[in-house]
Design a protein that fits this description.
Length: about 300
Amino acid sequence: YGIGLKGTNEQNRKLWGEPKSFRDVATLFANYMQGKVESLPWSESPITDEADALRKDLIDLNQRGLLTINSQPPVDGAKSSHPVYGWGPRNGYVYQKAYLEVLVSPELISELITRMERNPNITYFAVNQHGDLKTNSPDEGPNAVTWGVFPGKEIVQPTIVETVSFLAWRDEFYRLGLDWSRCYDATSPSRYVINDLMQNWYLVNIVNNDFREQRGIFPLFENLEVPEMDKEIPVPEVPEQVNGTANGDKHDEEKKEEPKVGNGDVTDTKIPDSVHKKLETQINGADEKADTEPKDAPAHNTGAGPSTSV
């Protein structure tokens, strides 16, 4: 089980640009939702057709600085042969709950949590890279967000949300963000912008348990927008170098700037064996379908979001 960005630093800078503000990052994400960018650090493939039902709302959220990582629309009994939502054996019906994973700034997280707590149909997990977990989930058990009903079979639940998988994904998510920042020089404004996101913002996943409600999640974000999105992150001045060093080894200085993931340094991040096996079946890759296989992925992203049940 390995994680890491594909491509060279130069290739990734060309693909994702050199953001100098949160606005630049938000524009990058919005462009991905519009099909103008083929991938993101957490999404190796272009956005899929399943996102069409959500695309307008996703673009709007990203333009306001609410960076969407993963999503799927609600589905209430689509035929298993449906060209977009269908999966599994013939003559069956498939269902799914609306799901959204989003990166939220520290200025907005308290208000968003207050709104989610007021809605009895919403369950959520929110965590930052330091491991500060907030949730209203009643227990640590799985919550099925995709399931199917087929002739002669028990209910099939291929996609779930649960605490252990989400926390394991948290480690991978922030590690990938750190890898993205390392595509830029240590004193680059882009590196500081991305590191600020990784150090301070919350990864939030939201499930609307009323699968017949079409837009139950997006009203939670009404009138929320990241403040001062155009403000550039200040980059500290680099002291003059003496004999090739700047008051110490340059490599050590660079290491001090890197954020930590979870409860330990990113280079020491380890996923427990009990989680390792589960994550091997976690949703990733493009939205491939087969007559006898469960659906592989939510609307966009390659590693985030619900895990497949085992």
